[in-house]
Amino acid sequence: MRRIIFIFFYLFVSQGHALETDNYLVWKQELDDSSKYINRYFSENIQEALSEISDHREKDCYAITKKIAKRFSSRLVHDNPVENYLFSILSEDEIFPRDLNYVDRSIYREPYRFYIPWFGLAPSIQVNGYYFGTDKLSHFASTGMQYYQVYYRELQKNHTPEEALKKSIQWGILDERGIHGYLASGILSYADLESNYQGLKFYKNFCHGDRPYLARSSEGRWELRRKPSIRDYVSGYWDETFEISYRLSGNWKKVAPAIKNYCQLSNSERVSNRLSYYRRTSIPSPSVRYLNSLKKSGKLPDPSLTQSFEQLCFK
C-alpha cells in the first residue's frame, strides 16, 4: 500500500509524462507528417511567452529560456501541453490510435504493472519519416529542460561542456531507472533518454550556436529570431522498435509473446523500408554513443543481447 501511495504521489506531484507507447502497432500504418503542427505550437508559445515578459532588461538568456520552458512542462500523466495540443488537432491520418485506451490491442495487453490499464498509452505520430510515441515530445519539451538545467549548473561550476553533458545524461539515467522507468513499468527506455537529450539540444539552441532562436532587438526586447523545427531533433532513435528498451524479466515475459506476433510483419515491404530508412539516416547522438559505451562495459543492461526482435523471432 505504501508503494502505491508513493507512486501516485510521485506521478501527480512531480513533473509527470506519458508513461509508455507501443510503436509496433504502427507497423501496419502510414501516417502523415505532423511537423507543421509541432513547429507551429512551439513557435506560437515562444512568441506568447516573450510577449508576456514585462521586464526585458533581463540580460540572462538562460533565465528567459526557463520562463518559456514553463509553458511546455508536464504536470500529470498524459498532461503535457504539447501532447494535449496534438491530441486536439491531429486527424486519424496523422495520429494512431486516436485515443489513449488501446491497451488491449497493444504489446502491454498483459500488463506488468497496474498503471498501464489505468493511465493508458501514448499514441504514435510521424515526423520526417520517423515514427514515435507522443510521450517522446513530453520527454523532449519537459525532461529536456531538466537536462538543460543540470547542464547549465555544471557549466557554472566551471566544468567543460563535455563534462556538463555527461552529467546531464547521467541524471537522465537515474531518472529513467527510477519511477519514470524501472519502478513504474519495469522498462528502461533508451528512446526516452534520446528524446530527453534532444530536448537539451533544443533549449541550448535558444541562446547558443551560430543562429540561436532568441536575440535582443535594437530596443532591447527579447525576440524569436529563428523558428525551431522538430525535424532537427527527431531520428529513428525515438522509435522503440528501432532503439529497443530493456525490460526486467517479469515485464519481458509479459510482452515477448505479443511482440512475437509481429515476426512475420517485420518482413513486409513497409516495415523493411522504414527500418532501412532509419539505419541510413539516423546518426547516433553523443547521448546514444555514451549509452552504448555503458552497455558495452556492462554498466547498463543491453537489450540486444537477450531481448532483440531478431532473437525473439529468428533464433
Structural overview:
The protein is mainly α and 315 residues long. The protein has one domain (2-314). The protein has 14 helices and 6 strands. It has helices at residues 2-13, 35-51, 61-69, 81-89, 115-119, 135-156, 161-176, 182-185, 190-204, 249-260, 269-281, 286-297, 303-306, 309-314, and strands at 124-127, 130-133, 187-188, 214-216, 222-224, 246-247. The strands form 3 sheets. The chain has a two-stranded antiparallel sheet. A two-stranded antiparallel ribbon has the order 3-6. A hairpin with a 2-residue loop joins strand 1 and strand 2. Helix 2 (35-51) packs across helix 4 and helix 7 (161-176) packs antiparallel against helix 9 (190-204).
Question: How does the SSE layout of this entry go?
Answer:
Elements (H helix, E strand, L loop, with lengths): L1 H12 L21 H17 L9 H9 L11 H9 L25 H5 L4 E4 L2 E4 L1 H22 L4 H16 L5 H4 L1 E2 L1 H15 L9 E3 L5 E3 L21 E2 L1 H12 L8 H13 L4 H12 L5 H4 L2 H6 L1
Antiparallel strand pairs: 1-2, 3-6, 4-5
Number of strands: 6
> Sheet bearing the most strands, described?
2 strands, antiparallel
Number of domains in the coordinates? 1
Q: Total helix count? A: 14
As residue ranges, the low-confidence spans are: 1-16
Mean pLDDT: 88
Structural class: mainly alpha
Q: What's the arrangement of strands in the largest beta sheet?
A: 1-2
Radius of gyration: 20 Å
Q: Distance N terminus to C terminus? A: 41 Å
- Overall morphology: globular
| H/E topology pattern | HHHHHEEHHHEHEEEHHHHH
Quick summary:
With 315 residues, the chain is mostly helical. The protein contains 14 helices and six strands.
